[in-house]
Every structure is written in C-alpha cells, then in structure tokens.
C-alpha cells in the first residue's frame, strides 16, 4: 500500500489484486486533458485491511477512490451510501464530503449512459428487456432499466433463486425466468443484455442463439475482453444495434472523476482508442476483471 504525502488532490483504485485495473489510464487521461494537477494511483489492499484503509483515506492524501473486487460490499458498509449503492447492494466509488466518507455505485448510470451514446433513443417505445445473469452487475443493469421506466424486464439465471431475489429487490416490472426459457421469449425482447462472464476471454462462450430477436432489437454485452464478444459479433451479423462493455467501463468512471476533481469529463473517441490499445496489448493475458462496470 502506498503512503501518500502530497498537497495535490489524488484518488485511487482499491482492489485485491488491483494491477489489472484500467481506471488509472482513464483518470490520468482526464487529468491531463483538463489540465488538473492531481494524481490517480493503484492500491492493492487485502480484504482484512480494507476498513482501516478507507477510514484513513484523507490521511493518505486521497479525496476519494474507486473500489473493485473483492471490496464492493465492504465499501457499502464502510461509508454512507446513496440510494443507488443501497439499491444495488454494493459501492464502487467513495468520496469525502466535508470529512464524511460517502459511497455510490456508478454502474447503472454508466450502463445507461453507454446505451444512450451507442444507441441513441434506444428506449423509445421499448416494452421488454432481458438481462442474462443475476449477480452484482445484473443488479446494476436492472436498477438502471427500472429507473429509465422499462415496463417489463426478464432476468434469466441458471439459479432461479438469484433471479427471484432481483424481482423482490426491484419490484413488479422484474420477472425472473429460468435460463432455459430465455430463447423462447426473444421474439418480444427489444433489449438483450449479457451481464454474465460468459463470452469473456478465458471463460466459456455464451451459447444462446439470438436469431429470434426482432430486427429493431438492441444487444448489449458488459464483457469488454474481447472488445467484440461472440454475442456482439452475432448481433452485428444480424444487423442489430449494439453497445459494448468498454463503453460502460468508460461512462461509469465519469461521476467519480467529477466528485474528486470538480470537472465532469467527456468520454471521447480519443479515450476509447487509448483503452482499446491497452486491452489489445494485454489480450494474451486477459485481466481477472473484464466487464464494463465497477471500476474495472
């Protein structure tokens, strides 16, 4: 862990491990772009040390932090969470507010902002979405879709109990279904979201043909290694609109930077090219975390 002694504002990403994170590239790019004298560092912190570390953020010279695996639930308990962090059940962003440590989760807004950027007006007239998976990323996606007013959201998971928990958490617009039922409902689905690790480099493929999706459907994948997953490639071949996991990774970083450094940054093609080049350079040894949320 780094001992910080500097008058410049600094933030960090906290994980165990943490070296795989692309957050330093993102935030240092913005610091340079906006001419801000500050820093962004990587802190590898074991789980047992996490509560004390974030309690002493200010003493270490930090104004805030991103939080990645395995600390996101511990971050929720260690700080004063906002509505999104409480609803999702995890925090990925911490900041000091008048000496008070506060927490939020930017995954839902990052997911929605990426959809808005990649597929403008995707939600116009939408009736039905389907989310594959029922883990932490799925909770963020469902929270974002509920907030955008999507009337019907199917959640498909191999463990039905986990999908049912999302229904209880987010209300009557969320409908848990068995994994085997998903394809049979594709004809009515206007937005399909993969929030599992299937299709990620080093993981099994997502074996679920999407030919039954309507021609106006949107396909989103939270995985960003590879940049084009098998699901997104299939969607491209069918002429469907798409949103990838890298876009979500970039958009979920925006609010943390604004909270720490006082400037709301822009997700630009230049930033995307920077992270794409880094991902392609690391393709032979994919990172442990390769989905677009939670300060990857």
TrEMBL record:
Any one annotated GO CC term: cytosol
Gene3D superfamilies: Leucine Dehydrogenase, chain A, domain 1, NAD(P)-binding Rossmann-like Domain
Entry GO MF terms: NADP binding; shikimate 3-dehydrogenase (NADP+) activity
Residues involved in NADP(+) binding: 83, 133-137, 222, 245
UniProt source species: Rhodoplanes serenus
The name this protein goes by in its record: Shikimate dehydrogenase (NADP(+))
Gene this protein is translated from: aroE
Domain of life according to the entry: Bacteria
Domain Quinate/shikimate 5-dehydrogenase/glutamyl-tRNA reductase: 128-196
Gene Ontology biological process terms from the UniProt entry: amino acid biosynthetic process; aromatic amino acid family biosynthetic process; chorismate biosynthetic process; shikimate metabolic process
This protein's pathway: Metabolic intermediate biosynthesis; chorismate biosynthesis; chorismate from D-erythrose 4-phosphate and phosphoenolpyruvate: step 4/7
Residue stretches making up the SDH C-terminal domain: 245-267
Catalytic activity: shikimate + NADP(+) = 3-dehydroshikimate + NADPH + H(+)
Domain Shikimate dehydrogenase substrate binding N-terminal: 13-94
Keyword field: Amino-acid biosynthesis, Aromatic amino acid biosynthesis, NADP, Oxidoreductase
Subunit structure: Homodimer.
């Amino acid at each position: 862990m780094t001992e910080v002694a500097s008058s410049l504002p600094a933030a960090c990403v906290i994980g165990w491990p943490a070296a795989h994170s692309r957050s330093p590239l993102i935030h240092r790019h913005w610091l340079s772009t906006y001419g801000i004298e500050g820093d962004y560092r990587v802190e590898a912190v074991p789980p047992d040390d996490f509560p004390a570390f974030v309690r002493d953020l200010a003493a270490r010279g930090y104004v805030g932090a991103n939080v990645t695996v395995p600390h996101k639930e511990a971050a929720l308990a260690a700080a004063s969470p906002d509505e999104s962090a409480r609803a999702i059940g995890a925090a990925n962003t911490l900041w000091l507010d008048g000496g008070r440590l506060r927490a939020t989760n930017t995954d839902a807004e990052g997911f929605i902002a990426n959809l808005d950027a990649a597929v403008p007006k995707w939600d116009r007239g939408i009736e039905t979405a389907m989310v594959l998976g029922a883990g932490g990323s799925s909770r963020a996606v469902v929270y974002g879709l509920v907030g955008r007013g999507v009337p019907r959201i199917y959640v498909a998971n191999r463990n039905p109990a986990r999908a049912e928990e999302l229904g209880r958490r987010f209300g009557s617009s969320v409908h848990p279904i068995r994994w085997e039922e998903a394809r049979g409902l594709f004809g009515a689905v206007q937005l399909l979201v993969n929030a599992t690790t299937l299709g990620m480099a080093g993981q099994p493929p997502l074996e679920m043909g999407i030919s039954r999706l309507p021609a106006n459907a949107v396909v989103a994948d939270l995985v960003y290694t590879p940049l084009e997953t098998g699901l997104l490639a299939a969607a491209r071949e069918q002429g469907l609109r798409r949103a990838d996991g890298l876009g979500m990774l970039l958009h979920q970083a925006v609010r943390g930077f604004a909270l720490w450094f006082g400037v709301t940054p822009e997700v630009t093609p230049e930033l995307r090219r920077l992270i794409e080049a880094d991902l392609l350079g690391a393709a032979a040894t994919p990172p442990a975390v390769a989905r677009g949320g939670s300060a990857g």
